[in-house]
C-alpha cells in the first residue's frame, strides 16, 4: 500500500519527494519509500461556464438573467486534462491507502486540492501538509506533524464561497451590462470597487482647480522662519499682503518668544507581510505588485531563501525565537554585519513574537539558507535583501530624536522654525530616508535640519525676508504602493463610526489576490500604467458611472471579505453569504436594465486578425461597400471601423407606436422598401433611415 502526496507544482513535488525518500521518476509522478508523489499544475478543475450548465446560455440574452445555479458545478480544465487524469487514477488506485494534500498552505491551495479531490470522486481519507518554508528541515517537520483534513474544512468553505461569489457576480453583471451598453464590460466583486478607487482619484485630479498662494520666509542669521498667522496658517492669499509683511520685518529686530525641544521615539517597523513587501518594493524599486509577488514566490519555491510569501501576518510565533537567532547568525556577505548586530538584541518582543496576531502563516522572513551561493538575479537579490534587512531591523534600537521648534516674533508677525536633532539613529541606520525630490519632500528635509541653541527673549535681526509664490497641488495619481494600501485598509474610510471600527482591518481581496486584480484592470482596458502611476481610462470612468454604488463600493465588498474571513475561522455564515451574493447578482441585473445613459466607444479586436462580423447579406445603403450586421440593440454596417455611420436602432420606432425591429422585418423593409402592418407602415428612406406612419 502507498501514500499519495499531491503538490501544487512539479518543482514543489520534486523537493518533497527528495525529503521523504521517493527517488524513482515515473510518468507524472515520483515513487519510493512507500510514497507516490505527484502534482497539479495550478488549477486543474474550475467552475463550469454558464453554457456548460445549460446550452441556452451560449447566446447572451437579457431575459435569461440572472443565472443562479442551485449547485455550482465544476469541470476539468481541457488544457491540463492529462495531468488531472493522472491524479484521478492515482487517487482511486486500490494500492493507495491514504492521501496527503501538499498544495500551497493557503486558501487558494486548499481550493485547488479539494476541487480535484471531489471531481475525481475520491472518498479516501487525507491529511494536510502545512508548512511555511520549502527548506528540507521545514518539510521534514511538516511530515512529522501532518494534520487532519477536518482542520481545514472551514478554510475550504471560505475558498469555495469566494469562488462561487466571484462567478455569480462576474457572470451576471458582466452579461447584463455588456448587453445593455453593447460593449464588452467586465465586472467583478473585488475588481470593480478597486477600479472605483482609481476613478475617484482621477476625477479629483481632473476637477482640481489650483489656487495661488504666497509664503514669507525670514532669515534670522543661523536659522530661518516661515510666516504663520495666529491660527497657524502659512499660506497668504494675496501678493500685496505677503509683500507688506516682508517689507515690515526686513532689517528689524525680532524676539524669540518660544523654544520647544521634545524627545521623540520611533520603534522599528513590523516584519513584512506580502502587501507591505509589495508596497516597499514599489516605492523603492518601482516594482509592480505582481512582479514582487512573482519574485517572492521564486525566492520561496525555487531558491528556498524566504518563507511562504502569500501571508497577511506581520508576526512570528514565540517558539520561533531560536530559529530567528540561527537565521541572523547565518547571514553572510554584505548582510553579515547587520545580522550580528541584531543578534545581540533578540528577545521575545511582542512587536515581533505574538501568537495572538498570527494568521494561517507567520510573517515573511529568510529561511536561514545562504544567499551568497544562490544564483539570484539582480531583482531577486533586491527583494531578498529587503526581507533580510527587515528581520534585522526589528531587533535594532529605537530611532530617537529631539524635535525642535522656535517661534520668533518680529513686528508682531510670527515666524516658525522647525528642526530635528538625532539622538540615536537605531534602526534608521538600515532604512535611510529616500532622496528628497518634490517641493513637499524638500520642505520636510528642512524640518530635519538641526536648529541652533537659542533662548526665549533673545533678540534676532531679520537680515532678509523673501516672498515666494506657489500654488496648491492636486492629489497624486495612485501607484501600486498607494493602491495596495487603500485595498488593504478599505474599511478605514467608512463614515459610520461603529461600522468603521468593526471593519478597520477589513480590506479588498487578500494579499495573494490583490496583484492579480490590478493586472486584470489593466488587461481589460480600465486602467493604464503611466510610468509608475496607475490611471483610470475613459472606459474605466464610464463603467463606474454606469454601475450602481453597491458593486463599486469598497465598504460593501469589505463586508463580504469580512464574512469570508469569519467563515475561514469556523463561523457558520455560509448560507447567509451565499444568499446575500445571489441577491446582489439579481439586483445588478435589474440595475443594468435601468442603467444611466453612458456611451462606450467601439473597441478594435485585440491581437491577431480581426474576427469577421457575421452579416445579413444586405448591402449597406450608405457606403455601399459593407453589409448590414446585427447586435443586441441595433442593425449596423460591417464597415463601422472604417467610419460608416449606418445604424438602425431596434427600438427606434417604438416611441412612434411602431414595432421593435428584428431580422425578419429588416429583410422585408430592404426588399420591399415599404411594409404595411396592423399598426401602420414602415418605410425605408433614401438616407438609410426608417420612418413609421400610424394606421389611420
Task: Label this structure with key terms.
Rossmann fold, 37% helix, alpha+beta, 696 residues, 22 helices, seven-stranded mixed beta sheet, Topoisomerase I, domain 2, 20% strand, Topoisomerase I, domain 3, seven-stranded antiparallel beta sheet, 26 strands
What does this protein look like?
The chain has a 7-stranded mixed sheet, with helices on both faces. A 7-stranded antiparallel sheet has the order 15-12-13-14-11-10-16, covered by helices on one side. The chain has a 4-stranded antiparallel sheet with strand order 20-21-22-23, covered by helices on one side. The model is unreliable at 434-442 and 605-610 (pLDDT under 50). It is built from 22 helices and 26 strands. It is α+β, with helices and mostly antiparallel strands and 696 residues long. A hairpin with a 2-residue loop joins strand 3 and strand 4. Helix 6 (153-181) runs antiparallel to helix 20 (554-568), helix 6 packs parallel to helix 21 and helix 9 runs antiparallel to helix 15 (480-488). The chain is flat and about 100 Å long. The chain has 5 domains: 2-145, Rossmann fold; 162-206 and 477-593, Topoisomerase I, domain 2; 212-265 and 399-471, Topoisomerase I, domain 3 (Distorted Sandwich), CATH 2.70.20; 274-393, Topoisomerase I, domain 4 (Orthogonal Bundle), CATH 1.10.290.10; 615-694, no CATH class.
Amino acid at each position: 500500500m502507498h501514500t499519495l502526496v499531491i503538490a501544487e507544482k512539479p518543482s514543489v513535488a520534486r523537493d518533497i519527494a527528495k525529503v521523504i525518500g521517493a527517488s524513482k521518476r515515473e510518468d507524472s509522478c515520483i515513487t519510493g519509500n512507500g510514497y507516490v508523489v505527484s502534482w497539479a499544475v495550478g488549477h486543474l478543475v474550475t467552475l463550469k461556464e454558464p453554457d456548460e450548465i445549460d446550452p441556452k446560455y451560449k447566446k447572451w440574452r437579457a431575459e435569461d438573467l440572472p443565472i443562479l445555479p442551485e449547485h455550482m458545478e465544476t469541470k476539468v480544465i481541457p488544457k491540463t486534462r492529462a495531468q488531472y487524469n493522472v491524479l484521478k487514477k492515482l487517487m482511486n488506485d486500490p494500492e493507495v491507502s491514504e492521501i496527503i494534500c501538499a498544495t500551497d498552505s493557503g486558501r487558494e491551495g486548499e481550493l485547488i486540492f479539494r476541487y480535484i479531490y471531489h471531481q475525481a470522486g475520491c472518498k479516501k481519507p487525507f491529511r494536510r501538509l502545512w508548512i511555511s518554508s520549502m527548506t528540507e528541515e521545514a518539510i521534514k517537520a511538516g511530515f512529522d506533524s501532518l494534520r487532519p483534513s477536518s482542520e481545514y474544512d472551514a478554510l475550504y468553505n471560505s475558498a469555495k464561497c469566494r469562488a462561487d461569489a466571484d462567478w455569480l457576480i462576474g457572470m451576471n453583471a458582466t452579461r447584463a451590462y455588456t448587453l445593455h451598453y453593447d460593449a464588452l464590460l467586465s465586472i467583478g466583486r473585488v475588481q470593480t470597487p478597486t477600479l472605483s478607487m482609481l476613478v475617484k482619484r482621477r476625477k479629483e485630479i481632473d476637477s482640481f482647480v489650483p489656487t495661488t498662494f504666497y509664503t514669507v520666509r525670514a532669515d534670522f542669521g543661523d536659522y530661518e522662519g516661515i510666516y504663520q498667522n495666529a491660527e497657524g496658517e502659512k499660506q497668504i492669499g494675496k501678493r500685496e499682503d505677503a509683500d507688506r509683511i516682508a517689507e515690515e520685518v526686513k532689517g528689524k529686530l525680532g524676539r524669540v518668544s518660544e523654544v520647544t525641544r521634545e524627545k521623540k521615539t520611533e520603534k522599528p517597523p513590523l516584519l513584512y507581510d506580502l502587501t507591505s513587501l509589495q508596497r516597499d518594493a514599489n516605492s523603492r524599486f518601482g516594482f509592480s505588485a505582481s512582479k514582487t509577488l512573482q519574485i517572492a514566490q521564486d525566492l520561496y519555491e525555487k531558491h528556498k531563501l524566504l518563507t511562504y510569501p502569500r501571508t497577511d501576518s506581520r508576526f512570528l510565533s514565540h517558539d520561533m525565537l531560536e530559529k530567528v537567532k540561527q537565521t541572523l547568525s547565518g547571514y553572510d556577505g554584505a548582510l553579515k554585519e547587520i545580522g550580528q548586530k541584531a543578534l545581540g538584541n533578540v528577545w521575545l518582543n511582542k512587536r515581533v513574537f505574538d501568537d495572538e496576531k498570527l494568521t494561517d502563516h507567520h510573517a515573511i522572513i529568510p529561511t536561514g539558507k545562504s544567499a551568497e551561493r544562490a544564483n539570484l538575479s539582480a531583482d531577486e537579490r533586491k527583494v531578498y535583501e529587503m526581507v533580510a534587512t527587515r528581520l534585522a531591523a526589528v531587533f535594532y534600537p529605537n530611532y530617537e530624536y529631539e524635535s525642535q521648534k522656535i517661534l520668533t516674533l518680529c513686528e508682531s508677525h510670527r515666524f516658525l522654525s522647525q528642526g530635528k536633532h538625532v539622538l540615536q539613529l537605531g534602526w534608521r541606520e538600515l532604512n535611510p530616508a529616500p532622496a528628497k525630490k518634490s517641493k513637499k519632500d524638500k520642505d520636510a528635509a528642512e524640518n530635519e535640519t538641526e536648529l541652533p541653541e537659542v533662548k526665549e527673549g533673545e533678540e534676532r535681526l531679520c537680515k532678509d525676508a523673501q516672498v515666494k509664490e506657489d500654488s496648491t497641488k492636486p492629489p497624486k495619481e495612485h501607484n501600486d504602493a498607494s493602491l495596495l494600501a487603500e485595498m488593504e485598509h478599505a474599511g478605514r474610510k467608512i463614515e459610520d463610526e461603529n461600522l468603521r471600527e468593526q471593519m478597520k482591518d477589513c480590506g479588498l481581496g487578500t494579499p495573494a489576490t490583490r496583484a492579480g486584480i490590478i493586472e486584470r484592470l489593466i488587461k481589460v482596458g480600465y486602467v493604464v500604467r503611466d510610468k509608475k502611476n496607475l490611471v483610470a481610462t475613459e472606459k474605466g470612468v464610464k463603467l463606474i458611472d454606469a454601475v450602481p454604488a453597491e458593486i463599486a463600493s469598497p465598504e460593501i465588498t469589505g463586508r463580504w471579505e469580512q464574512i469570508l474571513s469569519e467563515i475561514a475561522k469556523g463561523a457558520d455564515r455560509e448560507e447567509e453569504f451565499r444568499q446575500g451574493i445571489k441577491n446582489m447578482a439579481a439586483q445588478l441585473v435589474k440595475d443594468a436594465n435601468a442603467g444611466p445613459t453612458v456611451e462606450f466607444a467601439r473597441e478594435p479586436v485585440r491581437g491577431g486578425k480581426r474576427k469577421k462580423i457575421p452579416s445579413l447579406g444586405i448591402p449597406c445603403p450608405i457606403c455601399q461597400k459593407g453589409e448590414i450586421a446585427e447586435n443586441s440593440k441595433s442593425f449596423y454596417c460591417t464597415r463601422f471601423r472604417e467610419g460608416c455611420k449606418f445604424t438602425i436602432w431596434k427600438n427606434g420606432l417604438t416611441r412612434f407606436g411602431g414595432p421593435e425591429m428584428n431580422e425578419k422585418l429588416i429583410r422585408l423593409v430592404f426588399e420591399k422598401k415599404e411594409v404595411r402592418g396592423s399598426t401602420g407602415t414602415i418605410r425605408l428612406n433614401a438616407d438609410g433611415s426608417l420612418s413609421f406612419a400610424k394606421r389611420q
